[in-house]
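Q: What residues go here?
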């Protein structure tokens, strides 16, 4: 049988800042309540990074855990891709800063900006290098400081977002070219730039010269999310050559509990197969999928050899899905 080169996730790791902000804490600074937030989003708390902490700091902590889980060291890493919309600096890329802080050797390092879909996009990019022999050991990281983009007078957005980082190690492994192989098996990536006004930040270097604040039309995003994500999931499963019914675990972007369950219901995926961390983590944008993955691996729910389905939707609008066998 002919062997093929696969991109295999060999280690996962997550990092959450120490400070926990509850819904009751937010009710002291904006017109909201715990009941209002939980009913509409499922969120009960979120983590906020410390003063002086950076996205690259969080990314490094997650990366170290992922490397340890994979039995690798920073000296073996030849590629770093960071999915983020909240970089330390306009440039250099967070990936370059992470490379320096980890002490990784000279190699490929860059950021991917697809907002909440960034981690799925970044995995696809890494697959393009690893499965073609251009990288042997890649770090793919989702890291965000979304609290830095909040308008704390806008209760429709400031209660939703949080900070954190998650990482995976992706390595080249020989497979048999079947759906039983370990590795990244199928992707579907999408963007519709005509929907920009539904979710965006109202600042940037070439417009206002400021960072800006996140703006969102929540009801419209919800409507597009359930339909569009479901289509991408079906396309990714088809690309992988599997049925969605064969999936062991569904790991969606942790935006809103109603969206998570709405997509699962539309796809016919049992709620018991859905990994949900939105109640504790809130929406950490590109970090949410790897954080949820890391938690479920750590607590033993996800086991080696199982088939996983990842999906996300973010500003752009961007969305996408990935099927992988751990």
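A:
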């Amino acid at each position: 049988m002919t062997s093929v080169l696969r991109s295999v996730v060999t280690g996962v790791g997550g990092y959450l800042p120490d400070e926990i902000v509850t819904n009751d804490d937010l009710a002291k600074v904006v017109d909201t309540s715990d009941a209002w937030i939980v009913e509409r989003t499922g969120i009960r708390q979120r983590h906020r990074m410390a003063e002086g902490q950076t996205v690259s700091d969080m990314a490094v902590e997650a990366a170290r855990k992922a490397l340890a889980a994979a039995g690798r060291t920073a000296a073996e890493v030849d590629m770093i891709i960071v999915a983020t919309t909240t970089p330390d600096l306009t440039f250099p890329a967070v990936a370059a800063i992470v490379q320096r802080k980890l002490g990784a050797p000279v190699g490929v390092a860059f950021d991917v900006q697809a907002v909440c879909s960034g981690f799925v996009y970044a995995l696809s990019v890494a697959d393009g290098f690893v499965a073609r022999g251009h990288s042997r050991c890649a770090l793919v990281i989702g890291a965000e400081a979304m609290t830095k983009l909040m308008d704390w007078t806008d209760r429709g957005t400031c209660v939703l977002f949080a900070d954190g980082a998650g990482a995976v190690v992706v390595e080249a492994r020989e497979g048999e070219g079947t759906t039983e192989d370990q590795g990244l098996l199928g992707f579907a990536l999408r963007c519709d730039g005509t929907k920009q006004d539904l979710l965006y930040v109202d600042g940037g270097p070439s417009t206002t010269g400021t960072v800006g604040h996140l703006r969102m039309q929540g009801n419209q995003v919800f409507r597009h999310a359930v339909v569009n994500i479901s289509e991408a999931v079906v396309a990714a499963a088809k690309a992988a050559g599997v049925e969605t019914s064969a999936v062991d675990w569904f790991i969606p972007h942790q935006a809103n509990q109603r969206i998570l369950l709405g997509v699962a219901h539309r796809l016919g995926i049992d709620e018991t197969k859905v990994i949900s961390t939105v109640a504790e983590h809130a929406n950490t944008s590109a970090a949410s999928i790897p954080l949820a993955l890391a938690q479920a691996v750590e607590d033993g729910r996800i086991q080696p050899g199982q088939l996983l389905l990842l999906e996300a939707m973010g500003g752009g609008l961007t969305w996408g899905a990935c099927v992988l066998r751990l």
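A: Context that may help when evaluating the design: The longest helix spans residues 218-240. The CA atoms of residues 18 and 222 lie 30 Å apart.
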